[in-house]
Amino acid sequence: MTVAECTINYGCTLVLGRRHWKGLPSYSLPLLCDAVGVSLVDHHDALSDARACSGLASRLLDELGVSSIEEAAAELRVSLGQVGAKDIRCLSADIRAPMPQPNVDADPDHPFFGRCVSFTGALLQWTRAEAASLVAARGGIASEGVTKQTNYLVTGDQDPVKLRGKPMSGKAAKAALYASGGQEIEVLTELDFTRLLLG
Fold first, then answer.
1. Distance (Å, rounded) from C-alpha 18 to C-alpha 40?
2. What residue segments make up the domains of the chain, in order of their start?
3. Distance between CA 29 and CA 115 in Å, rounded?
4. What confidence score (pLDDT) does residue 1 get?
5. How far is residue 123's CA from residue 14's CA, in Å, rounded to a whole number?
6. 61 in Cβ contact with 13 (< 8 Å)
7. What are the DSSP E strand ranges found in 74-174?
8. Which superfamily does CATH assign the domain made up of 116-198 to?
9. Cut 0.85: pTM above it
10. For a tag site, which of 85, 179, 190, 197 has the least CB within 10 Å?
């Protein structure tokens, strides 16, 4: 196999950490290290950050009782990312599953009842699948993409690698395009989404 044909799997401690250590106010490297007791000597120094991420990965494996990142990813139901000669495929926070069906017996006065909700970026409080289930439980329609039927786009943390230098995700750009054409589509932060969900 040549270098050009080589593909390397990788695990992201940010995505894995969000899934395993739930409920933290932030998952930035310094705060995550502090929360789980891993040393971070000099943030933004490449070697120091790498050692801290290694420490987080080791702590994660210990707590899960597994011996590899592949096993940890399977346990936490995330997909490993891939680095190849021509592209980077980012680690996904969710293994694809069928979208849940809306609860037709939910409160018809809830803001999400009968409304189409899509998501972009990583949510801190829930996985994408959990958020979709919460929408469906309230009678909403969780959607993978942004379409002309989308009423809400919930924006989480964006992966800069996936953005590839663009100011917003493809879904956010499509939502802006539809909104400029007169479609009633509202962009929500995760906090806005939570308030509507629980309100």
1. 18
2. 3-89, 116-198
3. 36
4. 46
5. 12
6. no
7. 81-83, 88-89, 116-120, 141-143, 152-155
8. BRCT domain (3.40.50.10190)
9. no
10. 85
